[in-house]
Amino acid sequence: MDNQLYDYSPIVDREPIHWPNGARVAFYVGANIEHYQVDRPSTSIFGGTVDLAPDPLNYGWRDYGPRVGVWRLIETLDRHGLRASVLLNSEVCRHYPRIIEAGTARDWAWVAHGRDNSTFQADMTVEEERAYLTDVVETIEKATGRRPRGWMGPALTETFNTPALLAELGLTYVLDWCNDDQPYRLNVPGMLSVPYGIELNDISLFLGKSLSGPDFVQIVKDQFDQLYADSATSGRVMALALHPFVINQPFRHKYLDQALEYVVNHPGVWLTTSDEIAEHYARTTAPTTA
């Protein structure tokens, strides 16, 4: 079947995007703050034990994120004056309320990211998914005091109904379709796609490709430099996708600091959140623009 969610739109044919204060690149940190079920397999560092329940090796590795890694991440973001766009499993609100307290104090943007990272809604009926999404959104709103505006599915999963169901709940954008350097409108009234980093992502780089910390720094610089060059006539978005159980391991952590140092001190950068990118695009770009 053909994709009905969005239309083809070559970037060279679009009206220019103008970010606030003449910035050329809108930069946000997508911090994945997640909860994993102890008896379900998920992202793993060693495949030999993934079918065990419990799986202390892989579960413990993931559990490093909320216990230790996220606090290193917070320290670094604070040092660089960055607010996180948090891809938040709603179960984090119940299991790790201290993280919610820290993020609320820093005015983080809370992006709904499913109930936990062990549950995908891919096989749900419309009514099952509507109830599931409602629970996720309302749980996050109750815990943070702010209704999420955006969505990213666990492992970037959706059904064909997800964007429309999210629009019913008042959300305005998704991060799941990593096919562009600019936001664009979906064929669902009121819904946008905002860029997210599927390759500029610590899991993809460190686990998928076994790259080193210095490799990571160079890749972030290269990504930024190309987007900055491309943005001479129309703004671009750069998303840096991070998982505290990966990037904030002690031996990697300093390389995140080096990478952020390069971006945040460059002129012409809007240090922002995915919420603000979506809001600015919706407010300043004509609806007929893809």
TrEMBL record:
This is Polysaccharide deacetylase. It comes from the Bacteria. SUPFAM superfamilies: Glycoside hydrolase/deacetylase. CDD domains: CE4_PuuE_like. Residues 56-272 form the NodB homology domain. It comes from Streptoalloteichus tenebrarius (strain ATCC 17920 / DSM 40477 / JCM 4838 / CBS 697.72 / NBRC 16177 / NCIMB 11028 / NRRL B-12390 / A12253. 1 / ISP 5477) (Streptomyces tenebrarius). PANTHER family: POLYSACCHARIDE DEACETYLASE, POLYSACCHARIDE DEACETYLASE-RELATED. Signal peptide: none annotated.
